Structure formats: structure tokens, C-alpha cells
Amino acid sequence: MKSRLIKPAENFDRIARSYETMERLAFGSLLQKARTAHLEKVEHAEQVLLVGEGNGRFLAALLEKNRRCQVTCIDQSRRMLDLAENRVQLRDRKRVRFALNDFEKEPMSLPEFDVVVTHFFLDCFAPETLNRMLPRLSDSLSPGGTWLRADFVEPSDSGTIASLQRTVLRALYYFFAKTGGIKANKISCPEKKLEALGMKENGRSSYLRGWITSSIYHKSPCRNPDRFARITIE
Ligand SMILES: C[S@@+](CC[C@H](N)C(=O)[O-])C[C@H]1O[C@@H](n2cnc3c(N)ncnc32)[C@H](O)[C@@H]1O
Fold first, then answer.
1. Which domains can be identified in the chain, with CATH numbers?
2. Which of ligand 1's atoms lies nearest the C-alpha of 102?
3. Would the CA dihedral through 193, 219, 183, 19 be positive or negative?
4. For a pocket test of ligand 1, which of 12, 74, 140 has the largest count of ligand atoms closer than 8 A to its C-beta?
5. Is the CA virtual torsion 14, 207, 155, 195 positive or negative?
6. How many CA within 13 A on the CB side of residue 90?
7. Among 77, 117, 133, which is best to mutate for testing ligand 1, by the most ligand atoms less than 8 A from CB?
8. CA atoms within 13 A of residue 125's CA, in its CB half-sphere
9. DSSP conformation class of 158
10. Is 141 within 8 Å of 147 (Cβ atoms)?
């Protein structure tokens, strides 16, 4: 008997349409709260880069809050970009540029932005990928610029809730490996690398006992590459 082979997913196309429903069922409005936790800090930004923006929920909130900024929105999934584009009102279409790009393998060349946003994106990657990707992201942020980042965090304590959260994380990584093609199988901590690249964390909102965090970083106003830039994530 022939077995039906399901091709492994290469990107998030397959789950793009159901992504929001799954998110709402699993987390309610919490992830959107995390995405928008520092929104008011970028209401006067002019050039904003969203990487791995997905279906555009942050984009829509940003365009509503900041009525002037120009946005570049990168994602590897055509369907995610289509969903994001559909959220943009007619009056805002001219200020958003959508780019289908694999930022891991063939990162497009970018000018400098005053804000970079990576929500639930960095936690999709293994350390060796982050070691290449974070300097590129940092290069696209102007000195003194702002980086917004929301991600899951591996719980470090013992106890029932933490071990439940660890189990859910394993399940999420398994699910996104099969359906979204992600290669990482656990969370890597990018904090030291970000610090080495001149990012200073100036605010953090935490949810579900720190399982989800939303941070705001400011890049050093000095252009010199940091002396610790060789630090790697293990
Ligand atoms: C976990 S989802 C997060 C989406 C959204 N930012 C959010 O807050 O829900 C990861 C997103 O990153 C995109 N992505 C994954 N790998 C990528 C890559 N190498 N280059 C560009 N986008 C990528 C996926 O298509 C997906 O939309």
C-alpha cells in the first residue's frame, strides 16, 4: 500500500490562515498585548523595519498609532505577507513596503531604520543562525535607534507551572518545525549578543510569570562596533 507523504513545510504558508485563530485559542489577547506593550514609544518613529511580521497584527496597530511612519515589512511567507497587506487601510498603503525575503539565507540589503521590530521571530532560530542574523539586524538600526522584541522565555524554575510551560514550549517547537519549517528546537537566549551589539534594554513587560516578554532596547548612539561583538550565543 502506498503511503501518502506530506512534504515538510519550508515556511509558514501552510499555517498562515489559521495562525491567528490558533493564537487566540491558545493565548487569548496576550501575545498582542506583548507585541504592543511599547507601541507608544515608537509613535514618532519615521522609518520602521518589521522582520518576520507574519499576519500583520503589530503592523496594523503601528499604522494606527503612528500616522506618519514609513514601514518595511519582511516575511518569508507569501501568505503571511498577503494577510498583513489585507490589514492595511487604503489610506496607509503608500507607506508600507512588503518584501518577501528569507532573512536567514538571503537577507536583503537594507538602509538604516530608526526602529526595528522582531516579535516572536528570534525564538524561531538556533544559536548559529542568531549569531549571523543579529549583527545584520543591528546594522539596519541607526545609532540611538529602538529595537522592539517579544519572545517566549524558557522557564528556569522548578514547579508545576514552569514544567507545564516547558512542555508547551516543546510542543510548540515540534508543531512549528512540522508546519512552519523552523529549525530551532529550543529557545536561545540572545540577550548577551544584543548587549554586545550595543543594545541596552530599557524596559520589559512580562506575562505568565515571565514566560513571555516584550522588551524595548535602545542602540548605543556611538557608531563604533562594540568590543564584545565577537560574543556568540551557545
Ligand atoms: C512565529 S511567527 C511570528 C509572526 C509575528 N511576528 C507574530 O508576532 O506573531 C514567525 C514569522 O517569521 C517568519 N519567518 C520565519 N523565518 C523567516 C526568515 N528566515 N525570513 C523571514 N521571515 C521568516 C514566518 O513566516 C512567520 O511569519
1. 12-219 (3.40.50.150)
2. 20
3. positive
4. 12
5. positive
6. 0
7. 77
8. 21
9. -
10. yes
Query: What dihedral do alpha carbons 154, 74, 202, 184 form, nearest 10°?
Result: 20
Contact 218, 146 (CB under 8 A): yes
**Residue linked to cell 513545510:** 9
Sequential DSSP letters for 52-115: S-TTSHHHHHHHHH-SS-EEEEEES-HHHHHHHHHHS-GGGGGGEEEEE--TTTSPPP---EEE
Per-residue pLDDT tens digits of the chain, which is 234 residues long: 444 556 767 899 999 999 999 999 999 999 999 999 999 999 999 999 999 999 999 999 999 999 999 999 999 999 999 999 999 999 999 999 999 999 999 999 999 999 999 999 999 999 999 999 999 999 999 999 999 999 999 998 889 999 999 999 999 999 999 999 998 999 998 999 999 999 999 999 999 999 999 999 999 987 665 555 566 767
Reported pTM? 0.93
Q: Which position has the grid cell 565577537?
A: 230
